[in-house]
């Protein structure tokens, strides 16, 4: 009974009967999402259309993809502020390569393939650099990733001389514009990545080790878990995800502006993770939660815009939702 | 249950028929506790007996479902720990809940700062802190951060803080668990001082010897009820244990010596360490462990026992010395190296370095084994389940199932999970650092029996323990460490409480350890 004795007063509320706090913290995100959908069906014109669905899904993809990497990083007890800047770097590098600005590549397919792979790999390598700072020098993640948060966008601007790169390259832009079977390509990519990430967290040694590192790093190290390697890996994966998201953004826009690509993405991704129920102190990671969290945030934004609420106000409401989500988690934690 | 009052004066504290339920399950069904003024009162019971719940009811952390509490002759109710403190009941917890970064003064005066003209009056507070500490003959620079001082001193600060609130009753929850013998003696003097001043003390401890050294009365709890309350002098150690366990117990109390059965299952030397030095603590430690043997590390706190073990396991880098393991030169840069060689390490700090609290019993149990439980990085869930269920059964881990979160288990069961984590690896050498610290008597006996059994099956065990009884009763051979050096190797008839303590205190018998 010592497990019971250790619990504070709040536990007295907990009986076999309905507990609103536990219920809300488990299903809160889902309920919020459902309420938003119901609200929109009632009040937003042309909401129940395939186009609306596509618009929302297309826009949410990049948040989800970056959010996946962020979920893994947060699972280890870290955080990655550099994702937006890494998106900008990948977004700047890819066109440089496939527009033959660096070296002429005869075959456009080869150029695009090289551009995509290289830019994603570079973003991943910069992510590993983040992990290296965190693991090797024990720098606090928020500070370590602040380095590239600040420097990254500068690097992207230097790469492009601050110029807007525009292009019309269907061989590349399928990633943001193609509609196989009527489904946007990036939605397919997103779904596949969500499935892989959820599987990794549930079934693999790597997933288990992520949570062990976040749950008790010293215990994990003493049990032989390669803590530093795990950290390098999650920040690296976060970088890869950011790189891919950067490519999707520039493909949709047919242009790459180092000032704008991925701007504010770190906060959207963190918010998606938090709203999705992943504790920011590590040791837990809900991939599906992050998906729902991102959808909720996206739908809030859409609802407000579609009903004429300016974007600035939308930001405030978004913040309020995040605060609410974190508060609900605290309620569940304190028992 | 009613207990006759022997003293003429009424009790300081009287708790009767206390009940407390959590989620419909009774944590306290009929708990009583009566404390006389100036009395040192032992409160004992296994984990889960209801000691902590009873104390938390008293200090306002839990609200009681039924029962009466009177304090200083009046009905008593505290709405919070702070409220209880204001009314004269202070609690000092196992984990000292002070602020290590702030000064001693700030810690002592936290919550009742002296003010002058609306500003903090630092001089008055420093003086107050010094005055309180001097009552226990402690003279330290109260301006320095608390974290600079050792655990014992921090504990004194916690006590000084409690008394600063003019406490009439001080509750100490396992105050000696992180103290060495000398520090314990200092604490006991403080308790005697409190007693002389008419302050009552509730002393919660798992160490029976201590109770006899300092307590006047004892109350035994079991399964949420008060079983017996009696003067310390009228009740024997064995009686206490059998009351706590609710069954007759034999073999506890140090009679079970491993020395008699030493020869038959002890094999050749498995680990040999010479002149080992750690980044801190251990300076020159030489010892060896044979297959099928339990080697005990005895020593005072800070003697370098844990530090030596950490070097052997690769948790810290060796500064000097050499090791051979299983016939080969051996060194470990990181725990993974040691694990590969066939070592396991159950840490002394279960919470900070052992369990991953939010993970399940199964996930905790297989944490080290995972690479072997998987194919191409994918966990073999079926094999995991089978293995976990086997260990839960074999070690008698009490949990609702493999998926229960390990944080919800009692200390003893958490420790069994950690033991299972390493046993699942089939190690050659298992290092156990304080394997029974802070767990109840029943689980303790089970774990000690398990260690013996494992050694008989050929496992080499290096056991660090601060309890003399445990080392003498459980080890085939004992190395005594003192101030970072191995100063004695004791075996057979040479290993007695006297010889071990003499070596701890004076570093005698140096001839026993060859250079």
What does this structure look like?
The complex is a heterodimer of chains A (335) and B (515). Chain A is mostly helical and 335 residues long. Chain A has a domain at 61-263. Chain A is built from 14 helices and 2 strands; from the N terminus they run ααααααβαααααβααα. A two-stranded antiparallel sheet of chain A has the order 1-2. Chain A is globular and about 65 Å long. Chain B is globular and about 70 Å long. A 6-stranded mixed sheet of chain B has the order 6-9-10-3-11-12, sandwiched between helices. Chain B contains 18 helices and 24 strands. The model of chain B is unreliable at 1-7, 248-261 and 509-515 (pLDDT under 50). With 515 residues, chain B is of the alpha/beta class. Chain B folds into 3 domains: 12-88 and 169-175 and 200-247, 3-Layer(aba) Sandwich (Rossmann fold), CATH 3.40.50; 254-342 and 427-515, P-loop containing nucleotide triphosphate hydrolases (Rossmann fold, 3-Layer(aba) Sandwich), CATH 3.40.50; 352-425, no CATH class. Chain B starts with 12 loop residues before the first strand and ends in a 9-residue tail after the last helix. Helices cover 33% and strands 24% of the residues of chain B.
What key phrases describe this protein's structure?
heterodimer, A: 335 residues, mainly alpha, two-stranded antiparallel ribbon, B: 515 residues, Rossmann fold, six-stranded mixed beta sheet, disordered C terminus
């Amino acid at each position: 009974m010592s497990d019971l004795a250790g619990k504070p007063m709040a536990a007295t509320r907990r009986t076999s009967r309905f507990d609103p706090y536990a219920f809300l913290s488990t299903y809160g995100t889902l309920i919020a999402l459902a309420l938003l959908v119901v609200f929109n069906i009632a009040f937003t014109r042309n909401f129940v259309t395939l186009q609306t669905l596509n618009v929302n899904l297309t826009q949410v993809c990049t948040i989800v993809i970056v959010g996946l990497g962020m979920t893994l990083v947060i699972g280890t007890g870290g955080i990655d502020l550099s994702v937006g800047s890494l998106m900008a770097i990948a977004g700047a590098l890819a066109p440089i390569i496939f527009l033959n600005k660096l070296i002429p590549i005869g075959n456009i397919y080869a150029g695009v393939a090289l551009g995509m792979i290289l830019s994603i790999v570079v973003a991943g390598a910069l992510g590993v650099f983040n992990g290296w700072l965190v693991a090797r020098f024990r720098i606090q993640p928020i500070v370590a990733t602040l380095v590239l948060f600040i420097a990254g966008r500068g690097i992207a601007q230097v790469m492009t001389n601050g110029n807007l790169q525009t292009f019309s390259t269907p061989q590349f832009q399928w990633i943001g514009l193609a509609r196989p079977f009527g489904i946007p390509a990036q939605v397919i990519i997103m779904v596949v990545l969500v499935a892989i990430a959820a599987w990794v967290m549930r079934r693999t040694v790597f997933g288990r080790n992520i949570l062990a590192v976040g749950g008790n790093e010293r215990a994990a190290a003493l049990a032989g878990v390669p803590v530093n390697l795990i950290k390098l890996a999650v920040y690296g994966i976060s970088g890869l995800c950011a790189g891919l998201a950067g490519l999707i953004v520039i493909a949709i826009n047919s242009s790459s502006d180092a000032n704008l690509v991925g701007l504010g993405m770190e906060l959207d991704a963190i918010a998606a993770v938090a709203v999705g129920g992943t504790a920011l102190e590590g040791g837990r990671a809900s991939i599906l939660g992050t998906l729902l969290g991102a959808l909720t945030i996206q739908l809030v934004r859409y609802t407000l815009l579609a009903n004429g609420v300016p974007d600035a106000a939308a930001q405030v409401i978004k913040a309020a939702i995040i605060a609410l989500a974190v508060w609900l988690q605290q309620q569940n934690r304190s028992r | 249950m009613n207990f006759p009052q022997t003293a003429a004066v009424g009790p300081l504290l009287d708790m009767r028929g206390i009940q407390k339920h959590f989620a419909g399950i009774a944590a306290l069904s009929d708990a009583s506790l009566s404390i006389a003024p100036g009395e040192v009162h032992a409160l004992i019971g296994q984990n889960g007996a209801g000691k902590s719940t009873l104390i938390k009811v008293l200090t306002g952390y839990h609200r009681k479902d039924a029962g009466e509490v009177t304090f200083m002759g009046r009905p008593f109710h505290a709405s919070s720990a702070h409220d209880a403190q204001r009314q004269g009941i202070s609690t000092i917890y196992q984990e000292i809940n002070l602020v290590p970064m702030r000064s001693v003064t700030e810690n002592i005066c936290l919550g009742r700062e002296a003010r002058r003209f609306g500003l903090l009056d630092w001089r008055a507070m420093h003086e107050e802190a010094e005055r309180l500490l001097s009552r226990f003959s402690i003279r330290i620079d109260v301006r320095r951060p608390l974290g600079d001082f050792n655990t014992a001193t921090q504990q004194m600060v916690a006590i000084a803080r409690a008394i600063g609130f003019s406490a009439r009753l001080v509750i100490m929850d396992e105050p000696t668990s992180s103290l060495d013998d000398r520090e314990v003696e200092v604490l006991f003097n403080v308790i005697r001082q409190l007693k002389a001043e008419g302050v009552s003390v509730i002393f919660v401890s798992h160490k029976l010897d201590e109770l006899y050294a300092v307590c006047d009365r004892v109350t035994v709890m079991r399964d949420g009820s008060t079983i017996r309350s009696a003067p310390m002098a009228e009740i024997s150690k064995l009686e206490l244990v059998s009351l706590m366990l609710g069954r007759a117990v034999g073999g506890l109390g140090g009679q079970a010596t491993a020395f008699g059965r030493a020869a038959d299952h002890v094999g050749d030397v498995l680990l040999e360490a010479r002149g080992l030095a750690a980044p801190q603590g251990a300076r020159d430690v030489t010892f060896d462990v044979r297959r099928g043997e339990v080697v005990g590390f005895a020593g005072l706190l800070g003697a370098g026992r844990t530090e030596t073990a950490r070097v052997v396991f690769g948790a810290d880098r060796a500064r000097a010395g050499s090791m051979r393991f299983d016939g080969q030169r051996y060194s470990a840069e990181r725990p993974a190296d040691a694990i590969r060689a066939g070592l396991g390490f159950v840490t002394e700090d279960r919470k900070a370095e052992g369990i991953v609290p939010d993970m399940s019993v199964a996930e905790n149990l297989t944490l080290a084994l995972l690479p072997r439980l998987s194919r191409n990085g994918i966990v073999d869930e079926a094999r995991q389940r089978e293995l976990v269920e086997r260990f839960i059964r074999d070690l008698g881990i009490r949990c609702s199932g493999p998926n229960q979160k390990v944080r919800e288990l009692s200390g003893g069961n958490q420790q069994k999970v950690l033991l299972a984590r390493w046993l699942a690896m089939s190690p050659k050498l298992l290092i156990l650092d304080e394997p029974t610290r802070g767990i109840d008597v029943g689980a303790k006996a089970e774990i000690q029996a398990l260690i013996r059994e494992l050694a008989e099956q050929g496992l080499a065990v290096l056991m660090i323990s601060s309890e003399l009884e445990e080392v003498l009763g459980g080890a085939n051979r004992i190395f005594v460490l003192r101030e970072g050096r191995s100063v004695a190797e004791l075996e057979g008839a040479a290993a007695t409480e006297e010889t071990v303590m003499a070596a701890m205190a004076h570093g005698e018998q140096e001839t026993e350890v060859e250079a």
